[in-house]
């Protein structure tokens, strides 16, 4: 009777160990481990472990947030800084859409990876440029407030996470 319990325990242990080891053998890894914004990364990659596949939903989400920023810009009272922000948000969305087109082609060669990283870096610049414009204006006139401050607290960690994911591409 005791040997039956040991046998069934051994089989359960063996099955559990096999499942765990099989996951590691297939190269499952935590793409977000060590990222500055780990929780943002986990939300964006949706449990995917391949950086190429994980970038697609991450970039889609970034496009959605970029469109929200553009809608916010379109609903603002016109001022001298707004047109530049609208243009930057539009350029950012275009670059992100171009990134998705590059990713659809499958695994990237060195040149395509470089183009992807350049486009993502440009998106960072587009978002920061709008923020910087309002920060500079506020130093001259404290009554000027950045209407995009809240959405940029969402966009900035997202784009830095997407850029970090892209650096993991083979």
Automatic annotation (TrEMBL):
Organism superkingdom: Eukaryota
Key word Signal present: yes
UniProt entry keywords in alphabetical sequence: Signal
InterPro entries: Invertase/methylesterase_inhib, Pectinesterase_inhib_dom
GO molecular-function term, one example from the UniProt record: enzyme inhibitor activity
SUPFAM superfamilies: Plant invertase/pectin methylesterase inhibitor (SSF101148)
CDD domains: PMEI-like_2 (cd15800)
Name of protein: Pectinesterase inhibitor domain-containing protein
């Amino acid at each position: 009777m005791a040997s039956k319990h040991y046998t069934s325990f051994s089989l359960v242990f063996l099955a559990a160990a096999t499942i765990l080891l099989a996951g590691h053998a297939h190269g499952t890894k935590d793409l977000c481990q060590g990222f500055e914004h780990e929780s943002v990364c986990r939300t964006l990659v949706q449990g995917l472990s391949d950086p190429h596949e994980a970038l697609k939903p991450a970039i889609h989400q970034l496009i959605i947030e970029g469109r929200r920023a553009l809608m916010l810009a379109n609903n603002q009272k016109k001022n001298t800084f707004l047109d530049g922000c609208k243009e930057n948000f539009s350029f950012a969305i275009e670059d992100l859409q171009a990134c998705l087109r590059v990713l659809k082609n499958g695994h990237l060669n060195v040149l395509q990876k470089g183009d992807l990283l350049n486009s993502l870096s440009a998106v960072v610049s587009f978002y920061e440029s709008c923020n910087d414009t309002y920060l500079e204006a506020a130093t001259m006139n404290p009554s000027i407030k950045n209407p995009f401050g809240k959405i940029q607290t969402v966009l900035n960690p997202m784009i830095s996470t997407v850029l970090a994911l892209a650096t993991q591409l083979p």
